[in-house]
Amino acid sequence: MELRTVQQGTFAFLPPLTDEQIRDQLQWILDQGYVVSVEYTDDPSPRNLFWRMWGLPMFDVKDAAAVWLEFEACRKAFPDQYIKINGYDPIRQGQAVSFVAHWPDAGR
After folding, report:
1. Residue 30 in contact with residue 63, Cβ under 8 Å?
2. In terms of CB atoms within 10 Å, which of 81, 83, 86, 91 comes out highest?
3. Which residue numbers delimit the Ribulose bisphosphate carboxylase small subunit domain (predicted)?
């Protein structure tokens, strides 16, 4: 099992998720009615609150494949950055889920 230095987010203490598991989580986030956004940074410290947003939040997206395309585009554009997926609850107006989906040293 790969030991990671980034210990934040929903799945922080699990091994890196496979692409299929990431897609499943994207669909779960959408099924909850959450709004998805993709962010990236070179400083994954939990104290770093300013990740760069990849595009705009995906308010009207209901299909995980559309979010996956944006995540893949970000991963291709910034392979040496950490990439995080967030789910915002529009009713409570707050972040409900967040996890780091790409680590630069994960060999992807």
Report:
1. yes
2. 83
3. 7-104
63 pLDDT higher than 60: yes
Percent of the chain with pLDDT over 70: 84
Could you give phi then psi for residue 49, rounded to 5 degrees? -95, 0
Q: At what angle do helices 64-77 and 19-31 cross, to 10 degrees?
A: 130
The CA distance from 20 to 97, in Å, is 18
CATH of the domain at 29: 3.30.190.10
Residue 10 lies in a domain: no
Residue 9 lies in a domain: no
Helices (runs of H) and strands (runs of E) counted in the chain: 2, 4
Burial 35-57 (b: 16+ CB within 10 A, else e): bbbbbbbeebeeeeeebeebeee
Q: Is position 4 within any domain?
A: no
